[in-house]
Amino acid sequence: MAHEDCIFCKILNGDIPSAKVYEDEHVYAFLDISQVTKGHTLVIPKQHTKNIYETPPEVAKELFARIPQIANAIKNVYKPVGMNLLNNNEAPADQSVFHLHIHIIPRYGEDDGYSSNWTVHADDYTSGELQKIAEEIHSAIEQ
Ligand code: 5GP
Ligand code: ZN
């Protein structure tokens, strides 16, 4: 079901134009209007789902199943040196459009416009602490 105020549902309906890369029964892929790098593509499910938290497994399955094909097409056409997949969930994590989407960002070198500045905390956790965190998450996974 399309959501009235959702810009990506409007794109799916053809109410807002987009540069289509791929389409089938379940999935639509189009160029991000703000290209981080040449070929920056968004892949979305046709079924509106706000973000990864609300995504049923079947929708996730169909969405991710198309990504290797699309990524390989971008790779073959533009010969990037690498590629990043990105998915933002909730505003504090930089989600600005609340219809699930995966960014495919081809990479052309260090100064190509993309950056992800992670500060790693490898030494902050003992193996026992890592084990405890893993167990806490594991026991919260709904089967
Ligand atoms: P987010 O920040 O939610 O992960 O990414 C949303 C992306 O959607 C942004 O990179 C933004 O450029 C893109 N976007 C927003 N509105 C439109 C639009 O109307 N058309 C297209 N093609 N991309 C859009
Ligand atoms: Zn939507």
UniProtKB/TrEMBL annotation:
Motif mapping: Histidine triad motif: 99-103
Domain HIT residues, every copy: 7-114
Domain of life: Bacteria
Active site residues according to the UniProt entry: H101
GO biological process, one term: nucleotide metabolic process
Molecular function terms, GO-annotated: catalytic activity
Entry-linked SUPFAM superfamilies: HIT-like (SSF54197)
Protein name per its UniProtKB record: HIT family protein
Organism: Virgibacillus halodenitrificans (Bacillus halodenitrificans)
Lineage: Bacteria, Bacillati, Bacillota, Bacilli, Bacillales
